[in-house]
Design brief:
One of its GO terms (molecular function) is transmembrane transporter activity. The chain has 221 residues and is an alpha/beta fold. The chain is built from seven helices and ten strands. It has one domain: Rossmann fold (3-Layer(aba) Sandwich), CATH 3.40.50.300. The protein has a six-stranded mixed sheet with strand order 6-7-8-3-9-10, with helices on both faces. The relative contact order is 0.21. Bound molecules: adenosine-5'-triphosphate (ATP). Adenosine-5'-triphosphate binds next to strand 2 and helix 1. The site of adenosine-5'-triphosphate (ATP) has 11 residues, from strand 2 and helix 1.
Length: 221
Amino acid sequence: MIRLKDISKWYSNGSAKAHILRHIDIEINEGEFVSIMGPSGSGKSTLLHLMGMIDDPSEGEYFFEGESVFTLKEKQRSELYKKHIGFVFQAYHLIDELTVYENIETPLLYHKISSAERKAMVADILDRFQIVGKKDLFPEQLSGGQQQLVGIARAVITKPKLILADEPTGNLNSKQGEEIMDLFTRLNKEEGVTIIQVTHSEKNASYGSRTINLLDGKIAL
Ligand SMILES: Nc1ncnc2c1ncn2[C@@H]1O[C@H](COP(=O)(O)OP(=O)(O)OP(=O)(O)O)[C@@H](O)[C@H]1O
């Protein structure tokens, strides 16, 4: 599904280059549940953003389902993203002014889906995530765990093949964290969704089937 070839990223710092990622080669198959670990500053989020097509490398190639991502035009790239990828953020990134229902519905507005169908899809996911009773509340009226559930519901409503999650349990207590990991496990095992998460937690990584360790922008063996 994903093939990164000799990816490097640096920022120019005067005449010097500050390298964030160096010569990264990664292949990820459909159906995998992969964790990316490494010390703070090792480049994990940068790598996840590259995979999520929301950042560009300085060098290297990225093939998503055989499509050469970095040579696509902006519009085609965003189509590819919208069709296949759901992104889950540590800080939820919900829209404060919208209700739970409206937040979850938002990604559907960018697809050609009728309003009746949108209603049915949101109702289904509210039900599956057991948050029907929260649908008219605003994010600030929810606990952190509930907000992250809404963040994930919003990421999966378009039925993406790939979920990218940047420390999805970083702001949650351990019980809420376990619920999120159980949810990812179900999506992966029962629906075949490929999951790539950045985590600092060995416990969270143990839910996955493979760990990629980053150290100073390189893959550590
Ligand atoms: N726009 C930027 N300009 C310069 N340096 C940057 C920029 N964005 C990120 N960096 C640097 O890149 C390095 C890697 O950042 P990244 O967020 O990918 O690390 P991380 O492994 O996810 O860290 P953490 O675990 O603390 O979130 C850091 O040293 C950071 O300061």
